[in-house]
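LAB NOTEBOOK - FOLDING QUEUE
OPERATOR: T.R.
BATCH SIZE: 2
PURPOSE: Compare the predicted structure-token outputs for two unrelated chains run back to back under identical settings.
PRIORITY: normal
REVIEWER: second-year student, initials M.K.

ITEM 1
FIELD SEQUENCE / FIELD STRUCTURE:
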Amino acid sequence: MRTRFMLGGAVLAAACLYAQPAAAQWSMDLASVAEQEFQVPAGTEAGITIVNKTPRGRYHVTTVLRPIQIEPLPAAGFRVSEAGGGGCPDLVKSAEALQAATDETNVRPLVLQLQSALPTADCDGQQHTFIRAVMAATVMVLPVRYVIGAGEELVVTVQKLKADGTVEKTWKLTLTTGAPGSWRTLYGLAVFQDRDDDPFLTPGAKDGEFIVNPGLSKDRGGHPLKPAPSVFFSWLSRSAELGPISVSPTLGLGATSELPGLFGGIAVTYRQNLALVVGIPVVTQRHVKDKYLKGPTVTTALTTDDLTDTKYYADKWFIGGVFRFSSNPFGEAKKPAKEKTP
């Protein structure tokens, strides 16, 4: 959603000039820093009040409600200063100075002076109306309220325009609920059952004959375990970041094998850095070729590669322990530089 407003020097609104941002109404102070950012709960209904604009200045306001990129966002705070007061003749002069102001940093002390002194000043109706009108011209309340959902941010940009329409100054206010979460890379070890066949040859009844003993995995019993160094990718939601334990889907790849396995499952993460992963692996398994199961007698001394095929199979389960490191622990170590021959 995008709304644009062209402002002249007309009186637009007056109320609550320097209050700290409440749950629903936020002040954008043109006399403060150029960019400000605040964290708000999801579902916040935000109204925007622009304060300390010069009464006769021309401003262009743009509001954009957009999704947030998945990355951390910093926060900032408003700053509020103090000011004094004066008698009505002095207040009229201050109001005239405020009306003629061209720099937003000069607006704040003049408005604060008028705010503090006007209630007790001896001003007639015309003077009071003039001062109030000039003060009101320093404030604008945007007529639209925005509901900021989870994973969204509201960006309000104010541009002060010169007489020729070019931009003189720019201010930006961001209200963000924060990214919905982040992707985490975890490194560890996945363990699954070793279902590879281990065929071997024994001498046959005749010279030059060999008997193929398939060494099927199911005949070995117990199925030994096979480890696989792996890299897992897991999504951690923003709400889960605050708790000690989070549960999320994860997908992993074997890190060092020439034919890496694929591991899909659930990661139970403790304090974002330690995780236990369980799921279903898709890994390579080596099995004896059918022709050697049907005809186990051969006349050539064959190798394991000759007797078997290696293909991907979905297995029943795997379990893994993974850790969140700052860099890939499976990367190759750097080799020392060779010394130059003198």
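ITEM 2
FIELD SEQUENCE / FIELD STRUCTURE:
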Amino acid sequence: MRKGRKGKKFGRERSQRSALRRHLGVALALHRSVVTTEAKARALRPWIEKIISHARKDTVATRRLLAKDLTPAAVRILCNDIAPRYMSRSGGYTRLVKLPVRVSDGAKMAKIELVV
């Protein structure tokens, strides 16, 4: 039974789910918005919010922590460009915008973007 377990499995193993999350997070950091399915965007949101909160404390330790999951370019952009914009904000760094369903399979689509 799955009592008390958080998160969706997306039909993937644990390593594949974490890779999907990491790649979506890197794309969001580099491009400021990502179009994906609604379920994947909802799963990405709490993780990326915690990443941005860590990036607000721009220390060597936090950069090393972020480097475990993100590419060097994404860490640099997060710490130098994105995090300073949110210093006065206590959370809610992302926005989910629902889009029309995907034509090929009818999947619910959403755009996750960083709030300006």
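REVIEWER COMMENT (ITEM 2): The two ends are 41 Å apart (CA to CA).
FOLLOW-UP: none requested
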